[in-house]
Amino acid sequence: GIIIPCHRVIGSDGKLVGYGSGLWRKEWLLNHENRERAVR
Question: What residues have CB less than 8 Å from 10, skipping those under 6 apart?
Answer without folding.
Answer: 16, 17
